[in-house]
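Tokens for chain A. Residues wanted.
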């Protein structure tokens, strides 16, 4: 049986019915539709504004960091005591401003590192240790974190606190593995501090780890000498 063919009049009627139905739907749910559309529009605007603000913050913080780098170089290279004191005062104020304005951003982290370095240069080891530890806690996934832990360990040693120093070095190797800068030195320091505490077994473990992982490193040569010495004295097998 042949399919019935709809007349143009029937098709026009169907279109009219669909139009009326759609119109009724819009009229009935216009408030909901407008609300959904408005919410979507606000969300889109929010994303655009947030992106613009973020990009502006990155640009501004990066610019401030570059100036901070230049200011630190000027401070660090100044030989005149009076001028250096003036540069330090201005630098500290600038660094504090960056830390407060962009907490968590890289510019802020760099500022914290500079403050720790200034404490070191003044041999204020207690403040340096606190500053390095604060930086390590603030940026555990940054390349600055292992640097900060090494700085904290060295500051602790300068204060005659080998236990704190050893704990920092151990945290460094446990958390950051064998890939970051300074790990060979950290293993040697762990061994050296263990020797000082007469824990020769722990010292040998650290030295052997160093020797097996970095067989050609400079710190390995020192570790090998310590292994030979400890064995020769019967302090370890």
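Reply:
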């Amino acid at each position: 049986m042949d399919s019935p063919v709809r007349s143009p009049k029937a098709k026009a009627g169907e279109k009219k019915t669909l139009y009326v139905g759609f119109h009724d739907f819009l009229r009935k749910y216009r408030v909901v539709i407008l609300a959904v559309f408005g919410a979507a529009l606000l969300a889109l605007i929010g994303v655009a504004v947030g992106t613009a603000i973020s990009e502006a913050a990155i640009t501004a913080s990066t610019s401030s960091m570059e100036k901070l780098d230049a200011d630190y170089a000027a401070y660090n290279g100044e030989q005149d005591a009076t001028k250096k004191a003036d540069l330090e005062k201005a630098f500290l104020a600038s660094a504090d401003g960056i830390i407060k304005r962009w907490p968590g951003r890289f510019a802020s982290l760099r500022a914290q590192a500079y403050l720790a370095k200034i404490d070191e240069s003044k041999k204020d080891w207690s403040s340096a240790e606190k500053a390095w530890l604060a930086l390590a806690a603030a940026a555990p996934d940054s390349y600055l974190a292992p640097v900060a832990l090494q700085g904290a360990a060295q500051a602790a040693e300068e204060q005659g606190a080998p236990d704190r120093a050893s704990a920092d070095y151990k945290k460094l190797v446990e958390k950051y593995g064998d890939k970051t800068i300074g790990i060979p030195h950290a293993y040697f320091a762990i061994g050296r501090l263990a020797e000082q505490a007469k824990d020769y077994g722990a010292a040998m473990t650290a030295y052997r780890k160093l020797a097996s992982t970095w067989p050609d490193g400079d710190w390995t040569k020192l570790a090998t000498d310590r292994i030979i010495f400890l064995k020769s004295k019967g302090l370890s097998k």
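The longest helix spans residues 30-77. The chain has ten helices and no strands.
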